[in-house]
Recover the amino acids of this structure.
């Protein structure tokens, strides 16, 4: 008997090491790998948010510059159409000095560096200041457009001679001493004498019936008020961390001619150059730069875009950006906090795992030792374990019971050796099955703890993301309260920011639903269709702004629906885009919503109509088929098919009515929220 039992003795500590590996590998190996993957994804998303912010800042700066151009053009047009201007230019006995005084007063009020009136051959009729020449250059594209009856405003580059012909003071203001920084110290410093002008011209009718032009300009060289206004608009108080600062710059070619970037001791970095990499990408290839860049003396998260003159040449750049270091420090602090939290979690859970595994392997080792003693001939050896009701306790109790039987029937077993061997083998199989069951149960227990730990970490990361979302939303409200009534000018932009924050919140909610699904069961959003239409129109504004398409709305729906806002937006965008394609020469786009019942079920009906060419019956029948399209080189033919799927999935219907030459109407019906 002893010879049989000693054939395959278990290695010393074998069970202990296996159980320790099962307990600690998920926490010390697998979990750190998953944590590293999530930190890497978080870091990428963090950087993406920073680039997205600076891109939004550049969009605001671009809109401000466009507003300045359009505003200058409108103000000059208003002056040329004013009654006082007509009286001065149409009166035969009005002294020329009266017109000069009027233009001088207008230039001072409007903040213009020069303002003068020419006739259709370029001869000066009146000017806000005494010009150095009687016939300055007047063949600019915007001047020609104004003489043809089309007012315009663009950027233009004036050389030293052209500036001097207007005013020696402007020529002196435009001069900028170039500063060679460490990165371009081999470039000899020189003097920049050109000037970047915000140039505007408006049509003017002279007293003898001829057409003239009223020409105005603002010199941007050394004009700090221009970039300070941009910087104040974008980076007002609370828009950035306290240890960061936002900057804005206007470039002539690759030279900073107006900036609030500091060089040293509060001196502005006017006359310094942009980095070679950025200058080549923006000025040479016309790209928009949206990533980190070295600005003067530090790294900034930056955005650059080219400035075009009236000849559509790239003559300069517009820049906005903010210091990268505070965000880098924030990421490092967050990473340190995560590592510390992981260390605390390990310190708190590993001892608990060791206790649990000890409660498993110590009884098993005790049973193994008892078996070894029995194998050596001590039939009185027992496990001595207290009574336990789990599987291990049952095995130990059964083992002791077997040993008792062995001792009591030792003589009988020796006589019936063959029968005994069979029984021992049978008991051994039962023990093996019990051990296998024990090992399976242990694996399930460890896997359960692993999933619980992953759920807690997922919930923690989701809540950590919610904090900066709340800060961003709070800062947007602060910006709106600071701007006051001017916030209405950027109403759509604020709405889009809120919308994107909602998208982030939805992703966070999905993470929380993954970790704690019982807390989010049955959550639905109810809303009015008109709100989604309001949020959808800015998304297709780029298709409508340069067209002759007019939009009419009739929002009479009062019932609430529960279809996902983003899915309904996707459906409306598809329908509006199709309507725009059906109106290449312009027309009317009608958006209607009203309460409607279908098969005695209350709901809301949304109609998107156009007065375009319409569709033939054979086309209208197939319009919702996947991959069917009438745009041969555009589109995939999946837009309306996907829209039908989204609407149908939410219990609604979508249909189309169209006649050639009379237009098309898409009708979407959705059930009312219960």
């Amino acid at each position: 008997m002893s010879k049989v039992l000693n054939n395959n003795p278990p290695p010393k500590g074998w069970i202990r090491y296996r159980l320790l590996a099962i307990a600690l590998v998920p926490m010390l190996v697998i979990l750190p790998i998953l944590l590293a993957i999530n930190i890497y994804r978080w870091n990428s998303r963090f950087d993406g948010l920073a680039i997205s912010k600076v891109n939004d800042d550049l969009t605001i700066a671009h809109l401000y510059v466009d507003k300045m151009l359009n505003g200058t053009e409108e103000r000059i047009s208003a002056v040329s159409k004013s009654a006082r201007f007509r009286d001065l230019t149409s009166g035969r006995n009005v002294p020329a000095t009266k017109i000069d005084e009027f233009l001088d007063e207008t230039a001072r009020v409007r903040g213009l560096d020069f303002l003068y009136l020419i006739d259709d051959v370029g001869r000066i009729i009146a000017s806000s200041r005494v010009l150095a020449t009687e016939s300055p250059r007047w063949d600019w594209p915007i001047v020609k457009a104004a003489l043809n009856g089309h007012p315009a405003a663009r950027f233009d580059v004036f050389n030293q001679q052209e500036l001097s012909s207007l005013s020696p003071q402007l020529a002196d203001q435009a001069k900028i001493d170039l500063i060679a920084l460490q990165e371009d110290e081999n470039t000899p410093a020189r003097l920049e004498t050109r000037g970047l002008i915000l140039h505007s011209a408006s049509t003017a009718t002279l007293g003898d019936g001829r057409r003239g032009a009223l020409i105005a300009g603002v010199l941007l060289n050394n004009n700090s008020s221009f970039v300070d206004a941009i910087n104040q608009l974008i980076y007002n108080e609370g828009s950035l961390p306290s240890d960061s600062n936002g900057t804005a710059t206007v470039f002539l070619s690759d030279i900073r001619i107006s900036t609030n970037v500091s060089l040293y001791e509060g001196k502005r970095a006017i006359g310094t150059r942009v980095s070679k990499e950025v200058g080549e990408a923006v000025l040479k290839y016309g790209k928009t730069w949206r990533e980190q860049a070295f600005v003067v003396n530090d790294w900034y998260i930056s955005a650059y875009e080219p400035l075009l003159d009236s000849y559509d040449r790239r003559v300069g750049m517009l820049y906005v950006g903010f210091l990268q270091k505070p965000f880098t420090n924030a990421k490092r602090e967050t990473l340190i906090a995560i590592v510390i939290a992981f260390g605390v979690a390990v310190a708190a859970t590993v001892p608990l795992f060791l206790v649990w595994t000890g409660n498993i392997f110590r009884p098993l080792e005790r049973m193994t030792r008892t078996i070894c003693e029995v194998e050596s001939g001590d039939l009185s050896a027992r496990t001595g374990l207290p009574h336990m009701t789990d599987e291990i306790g049952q095995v130990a109790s059964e083992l002791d019971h077997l040993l008792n039987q062995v001792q009591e029937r030792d003589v009988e077993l020796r006589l019936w050796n063959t029968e005994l061997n069979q029984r021992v083998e049978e008991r051994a199989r039962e023990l093996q099955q019990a051990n296998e069951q024990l090992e399976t149960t242990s694996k399930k227990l460890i896997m359960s703890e692993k999933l619980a730990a992953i759920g807690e970490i997922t919930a923690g990361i989701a809540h950590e993301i919610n904090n900066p979302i709340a800060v961003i939303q709070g800062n947007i409200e602060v910006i709106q309260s600071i701007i006051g009534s001017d916030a209405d000018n950027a109403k759509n932009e604020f709405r889009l920011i809120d919308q994107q924050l909602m998208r982030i919140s939805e992703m966070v909610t999905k993470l929380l639903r993954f970790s704690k699904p019982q807390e989010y069961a049955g959550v639905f959003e109810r809303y009015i269709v008109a709100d989604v239409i309001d949020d959808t129109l800015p998304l297709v504004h780029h298709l409508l702004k340069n067209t002759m398409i007019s939009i009419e709305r009739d929002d009479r729906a009062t019932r609430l629906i529960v279809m996902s806002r983003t899915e309904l937006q996707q459906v409306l965008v598809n329908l509006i885009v199709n309507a725009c394609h059906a109106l290449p020469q312009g027309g009317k786009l009608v958006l209607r919503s009203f309460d409607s019942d279908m098969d005695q079920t209350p709901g809301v009906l949304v109609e998107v109509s156009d007065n375009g060419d319409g569709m033939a019956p054979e086309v209208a029948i197939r319009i919702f088929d996947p991959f069917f399209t009438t745009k041969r080189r555009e589109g995939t033919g999946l837009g309306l098919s996907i829209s039908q799927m989204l609407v149908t999935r939410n219990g609604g219907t979508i249909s189309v009515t169209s006649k050639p030459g009379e237009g098309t109407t898409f009708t979407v019906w959705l059930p009312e929220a219960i």
Observations:
- Residues 529-671 form a domain with the Heat Shock Protein 90 fold (CATH 3.30.565.10).
- The chain has four domains: 2-37+331-476, 82-219, 225-323, 529-671.
